[in-house]
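Hi support team,

I submitted a single chain yesterday and got back a structure, but I'm not sure I'm reading the token output correctly. Could someone confirm the output below corresponds to the sequence I sent? I've pasted both exactly as they appear in my results page.

Thanks,
R.
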Amino acid sequence: MFSRDQLKAIAAGATTLLGAVALVWQAFERPGRGRVLQSQSGAFLDAARSLNRGAGLLAFSVAADSALEHYRGDFQNRAMYTPLLTSGLSLLVSAQGQQDPEKHNSPWRNGVYSGTVLTGLIGTGFHILNIGKRPGGLSWSNLFYAAPVGAPAALVLSGVLGHYSERLRAETGDLTPRILGLPTVESLGLMSAAGLLGTSLETALLHFRGAFQNPAMYIPVSAPPLAALALAATVLAGPGYLKLRWISRFLLRFTAVMGFAGAAFHALGIARNHGGWRNWRQNLQAGPPLPAPPSFTGLALAGLATHTLLEQSGGQSR
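Hi R., thanks for writing in. Yes, this is the structure output for that exact sequence:
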């Protein structure tokens, strides 16, 4: 459909456009102007709602991707229905939490998120077992074509983000919640950075399988790791490094927009297969996974929630 030179031009144009959108977002979302998709109910509630959105996006990505992949596997194991149920519930409670104006910890939302984490961990174990049972064991071929380890891991991240949102809602007065023994800002920032790195690693594996035929395939294996490193450095550096915090927010916004752009590129990849969208029943299963890229958006939102907390605890981020 496109020549190599045309694909390079498309990739360069997409990168420029994503950067421009991120810069516009960066310029608009200043203290005093209000925040895109955020309330003015306090930093902890703002961050909790942002985490609800991130958890919901990850849950949607897993639900749609698992539905396609497990349908392709004919649901041979009845346990393959479980991630559809838990990710669907995670999506619903995340939507409810994002709309919840109250600053309180919800036991039933926390219960769903805990079940989501447990399902993701068990699913990861099943997928690793699936790889180990194949001839050759842990090999490149099996990593390419066996059950993807990253899919259930994304379900774990959805539940973890939701759990973090509930912990933030539990904040009262001068009491700042701690998670895994660390203050919330550090714990959330490092977890988000680790999630971005892990998701980018999974993407690199699959894009390597596709031989990086489209130069745009390099974007999700380069921008998210840079965003993760900048976020981790920002969290560890403290409140004085304003330039670093600006760079971190810009890269996170770039990654957030890139997640939706990636879905458009995957739709283009499906259209390039034989029969295009007219043969959607086959090409949705054989082409690049359409619902996978928005998982980057969910994790980037978690990183931006970290910056919301940094503003509260250490001054403005600009």
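A quick pointer for reading it: Confidence is low (pLDDT under 50) at residues 32-40. Let us know if anything else looks off.

Best,
Support desk
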